[in-house]
Amino acid sequence: MYSRLIRPAGRKSFFLFGPRGTGKTTWVKAEFPGALYVDLLESGLFNDLLARPQRLEELVPPGFDDWIVIDEVQRIPELLNEVHRLIEGRRWRFVLTGSSPRKLRRMGPNLLAGRALTCSMHPLIAVELGKDFNPDRSLKFGHLPSVFSEPDPQRYLESYVRTYLEEEIRQEGLTRNLGAFARFLETASFSQGSVLNVSSVSRECAVERKVVEHYFAILEDLLIACRVPVFTRKAKRRMPSHPKFYFFDVGVYRALRPAGPLDRPEEIEGIAFESLVFQELRAVNAVLNLGYTMHYWRAAGNAEVDFVLYGERGIKAIEVKRAGRLSDEMFRGMRLFLRDYPMAKPFFIYGGGRRMSRGPIDVLPVADALRRLPELLS
């Protein structure tokens, strides 16, 4: 088990959301060894609490003064009313884990009215992996914890995509047509790291546009994909309006992305490289509570900066290239961005092995950049 950067929020109750397989349960059991553990995947307990949520209080021994963990809390949203009452009346502390906040939103926009914080669990990051971080392996299999313990990580990822995602969809009751959803998933993988065109995805997978839009919302609700909006703060240029799309883990993306004789390996590798940097940026920002919002930037002529992080700590601009050798043309988008936002701190992450600079732009090898990411973003 790797040591995770995420830390409990003092003595305050909290939600811990994250996709399946990111290590929520493992972390909670290690971090709270004396906790009372309520597993809603246990069918008997699930049925009892579904019929009578008030029974939660009866499960707690007299005089108990430790944390109470409710795993997969989204399976019984009505439990939140009881948790709310017990936090207020008994001063008990809860860890509430889940792989989807979708059903819980029915309880209101502010879960538990601010009486519990919200934290996120992401795939492992380079800092957590330490000496086990190998960029080549990461680009192939991603950073879900099980790919570092399973004897066949590729088979695990295929099973994750085929079984876990379908199981999650079935449990949530989000769609009856799993065949159409499976076609959509494969087609959506071609949108990884690209400006999202929902109409094009709809045509490719032969599913109605409105349904495809719903499917994309499902991926976001289940925390297995997200859309990155364009950066438009005080924009001096005309910006695109569509977001970019990413699955949450590069290994999951590659398990979904079909590859054949007509697919260029360098294209898949380039998108995987960008995806790895994306998931690391997103995870470090979340677990260290850095407060950035994540965007991309694109000007006329397809000049682009892959990621723009904006917040009270300033503006960080990050361009990503798989190439090991650099040319001036690769820096065109960053230079245009810096003309509009000279206060930004620019980084260029690439596949080479030397650290250097191009004017104000720090050029970093990917292994060095990802190991130092908490420092670079702070």
Q: What this model shows, in words?
A:
The chain is α/β, with parallel strands linked by helices. The chain folds into two domains: 14-120, P-loop containing nucleotide triphosphate hydrolases (Rossmann fold); 126-377, no CATH class. The protein is 39% helix and 17% strand. The chain contains 15 helices and 13 strands. The chain has helices at residues 24-31, 43-51, 55-58, 79-90, 126-129, 135-141, 153-172, 178-189, 198-205, 209-221, 250-256, 265-287, 332-340, 366-371, 373-377; strands at 14-17, 36-39, 68-71, 94-98, 117-120, 225-228, 244-247, 293-298, 304-311, 314-321, 345-350, 356-358, 361-365. It has a six-stranded mixed sheet, with helices on both faces. A five-stranded parallel sheet has the order 2-3-4-1-5. Strand 3 (68-71), helix 4 and strand 4 form a beta-alpha-beta unit. Helix 6 crosses helix 11 (250-256) and helix 11 (250-256) packs antiparallel against helix 12 (265-287). The longest helix has 23 residues, at 265-287. It starts with 13 loop residues before the first strand and ends with a helix. The model has no long low-confidence stretch (mean pLDDT 90).
